[in-house]
What we know:
The chain is of the alpha+beta class. The protein has helices at residues 25-35, 75-87, 164-175, 214-227, and strands at residues 2-8, 11-17, 46-51, 59-65, 94-99, 102-108, 113-117, 121-125, 130-132, 135-137, 140-144, 149-155, 185-193, 196-203, 208-210, 235-239, 242-251, 254-263, 265-271.
Amino acid sequence: MQFVKMNGAGNDFIILDNRDGRYSDAELSEIAKIVCHRHLSVGADGLMAVAKAEGTADFRMQFFNADGSLGEMCGNGARCICRYGYEFGLAGERQTIETTAGIVTGQRIDRRNYRIRLTDPTILRCDYPVELEGTTYPCAYVELGNPGLPHAVVPMEALRDQNFEALRPLGRGLRSHPAFPKGANVNFYEIIGPDHLIEKTFERGVEDFTYACGTGTGSVAAVLTLRGEVSGKNVRVDVPGGTLWMDVLRQGDTITDLYLTGPTNLVCRGELTDEDLV
């Protein structure tokens, strides 16, 4: 089984070519659970399969979280798969990708940097307080695409100084809170300067912190733009794996476009020989 491993600002993925349809969704789910395990196999936050488009897009992205659950979409994954599509001759410098949550468009900036238009917010609640163990957190709630990818947006003071270990209990508690019927990716953020944020995300499906979350970054930027706390233009978001950039276009209280730009890294390509794969 041939594979490519890539990461986008530390959010890492295993990519398979499934254009011939050899693997069903059920098989890809099982493959993801095996090969994404960091101690027993290659290790990754998720698995992506490149499939034939059902419509007029260049190709389709099938995304599975490390726990084998189907993901609606992944922003950093989409940037990586755009690079895969360009370098493996599936699309040009501008491309269109089908995802479970809707159409994503991508653009090659240079060899390592790619820009994508995220799926639109279908739910965006800037004021969505959540109580957990006697404390009320001033959350916002966003779903991107349809079906929507759920995100909690949570301000956190001194976020730079808080490591994953310290934040994990709160991340885990909010991720499964009844206020979020689908569960949620929990995006902690702190504004540290004009159009400059820090973000750390506890991801649903990985069930831990990752080094970056593209849709989470888009959700945070969308909320803060509507609140007037950032301009929405070239907003810098520092994540544990690097730096991402957001551009948010709005008309009144409606977000019309979310653009995510950031680095990719083609780590390796080779053959999966994991003996746990049947």
